[in-house]
Amino acid sequence: MENAVRFEHELSQIRVVFSSSVGGAHEIQLHTVLEAMDMLGILDYGVARTADLFMKFAIGPATNLRAPVSFVEESFGSFVENGQAILKIIPSSDAKMEDVDGKALFLRLTTVVKFIYRHICLQSGRWMRCFGKLTWPRMSELIISNFLSKVVPDDASKLADFHTVMNTSSEFEIVLKEVMFISESDKNDQRLSNFADNVEVHFAVRQKAEILA
C-alpha cells in the first residue's frame, strides 16, 4: 500500500498511483493488491497504516477549526489505465473564518471521504467499510470535540440554532452511508446524530425538572 498511496508531506499532497512496482517486480495494480489482501483476510491490517496517515495528514487538519485546510482533487486516467489521483492539502488563508453550522467542516471531510472512496477503495463498498471502521471512531470524536461540543447551547432558547447543526451533521452521515463509510443499519455508527440527540434529551429533562419545580 505504501507504494500505491504516497503521503508527500513536503508537497502538501497525497498521491495515489494505481499501478506500481514492488521489489523490482512487474507493475502491480492497486486493485489487485486490495483483492489479494481481502481474499487472505488481512485487508484491515493492510490498510491500517494508510488509514492512520489519512487521519494525521488530512482528516485531523480538516477538523482543526483554528487553522483549517481545504482540499483540491486532481486525477489523471483511472486505475484501469494506470493513472494517478492527487489530493492537494491547502492551508486556509483566513484562520478566523467562522463556521457556525459546520457546513464548511463537513464539506472538507466529504471531499476527503469521497477521494478515499473513488481512488483508494475504488468504489468497493466492502473495502470502504473496512476503511471506515479504521477511521470513523477517531474522525467522529474529532468532530465532536472540536466542533459539536463547542456549539452546544447554554440555554434552551438557543436550541433552534443547534437544530441547524444537527441537520448538517445528519446530512453528512447520510453522505457517509451512501459511500458505505459507515453502516446503513447500525445506529451506533451515527455518532454525530447520537451526540446531538443526547443534547436534546438533556434540555428536555432539565425543562421538565424546571416545570415540576
From TrEMBL:
Q: Which GO terms describe its cellular component?
A: cytoplasm; RZZ complex
Extract the InterPro entries matched here: Zw10_middle
- What Pfam families would the database entry show? Zw10_middle
Question: Please, one GO biological process term?
Answer: mitotic spindle assembly checkpoint signaling
Domain Centromere/kinetochore protein zw10 middle as annotated: residue spans: 1-212
Listed name of the protein: Centromere/kinetochore protein zw10 middle domain-containing protein
Q: What is the species listed in this Swiss-Prot or TrEMBL entry?
A: Opuntia streptacantha (Prickly pear cactus)
**What is the organism lineage in this UniProt record?**
Eukaryota, Viridiplantae, Streptophyta, Embryophyta, Tracheophyta
